[in-house]
Amino acid sequence: PVSVRPCQTNGLYVEDQDFVLDAQDFQIRHQPTGLCLTAAGGTQSGGLDVALAGLMLTYCTPGLQSQRFKHDYTRVRNADVPFSIKLDSSQHGHVLTGAFEGSVTLEEWDGKYHSAVPKGYSNPGWQSWSYFPNTRQLRNYYWVLNGEMGYPYCLSTCIPASDAVDPDSQLQQPQPLPA
């Protein structure tokens, strides 16, 4: 699974947030596994059914459209930029969208830059990202001055907190010994 979670602090490296941007094919590669972020899901006659599409890590395939998250490669290290992908006949394609509850989705894109998700979306979050090459994190913003965004979130391979199972709820209660 691919999700977002609070970024690792103090510039420390952590495996689940270790991503590399490929300038040639616009792939987002998870460095420890060598797998690429891929839009995957149901198909229809016009291509991938974005309503059914999810994001996952799969083998990297140069030129594969479902792995081409186009962005401003020059600016992504100094500002937040959208990561767009063209999967169907929509005018502007779709944009990589993060939500504070931990999900990462593809939302229809209007072709404009939005720091936060435009009104009308069900999950509050963001549609632009910034890349930190020293820690190889893809973060939801570059400047901390954006007070409404709170603590920065990073792309992650961890299970979203909303889907996690409380390990304590899975433990069986001790049973009394038979008399």
Please explain how this structure is put together.
The protein has 179 residues and is mainly beta. Helices cover 0% and strands 28% of the residues. The relative contact order is 0.22.
What's this entry about, in short?
The protein is built from no helices and 14 strands.
The overall pLDDT, averaged over residues, is 79
**CA-atom Rg in angstroms:** 18 Å
Number of strands: 14
Count of helical stretches: 0
Poorly predicted segments = 42-46, 165-179
Overall form? globular
Task: State the order of secondary-structure elements, H for helix, E for strand.
Answer: EEEEEEEEEEEEEE
What percent of residues adopt helix (DSSP H or I)?
Answer: under 10%
Query: What is the terminal-to-terminal distance?
Result: 47 Å
- Major sheet: 4 strands, antiparallel
Topology:
Blueprint: E1 3-6, E2 19-21, E3 28-30, E4 35-40, E5 43-44, E6 47-48, E7 54-59, E8 84-85, E9 94-99, E10 104-108, E11 125-126, E12 130-132, E13 137-139, E14 153-156
Antiparallel strand pairs: 1-14, 2-3, 3-4, 4-7, 5-6, 8-9, 9-10, 9-11, 12-13
